[in-house]
Amino acid sequence: SQLTEESPLLASHARFISQPVPWRVRLADNPPRLIMDFREVDWTGIGQMPVSSSRIAGLRAGSFRPGWSRLVMAMSGPFTVRSAAMETEGQVTVHLRLGPASAEDFAAAA
User: Fold this and answer.
1) How far is C-alpha 84 from the geometric centre of its chain's CA atoms?
2) Quick count: other Cβ atoms within 10 Å of Cβ 50?
3) Which residues of 13-34 are buried (b: 16+ CB within 10 A; e: fewer)?
4) pLDDT digits (tens, 9 = 90+) for 38-90
5) Residue 107: which H helix or E strand, with range?
6) 4 versus 23: which is more confidently predicted?
């Protein structure tokens, strides 16, 4: 499992699930967070997952309701999701493209 960043594309790639599952992504404000919900993911070892991103300040994960797991990424500032996709061929990878945003635009998207 890993979370990496590609500059200057503002793209992050996360590999922490072993098979395709239903998922969704959203933003929350105060402080800025990116929230990803997945259908039943085992987060064992998430605390040791390398994070190579200047945009992600911290991670926490767990269950939030029966059958669903949540990953919360504390962000270093206001970013909006430009695109989000799950690659299911080969190793399952979640691709997020984040773009800088003003505080007002971020709050409107959250």
Assistant:
1) 9
2) 9
3) bbebbeeebebeeebeeeebbb
4) 998 887 777 766 666 777 888 888 888 999 999 898 988 998 888 888 888 88
5) helix 103-109
6) 23
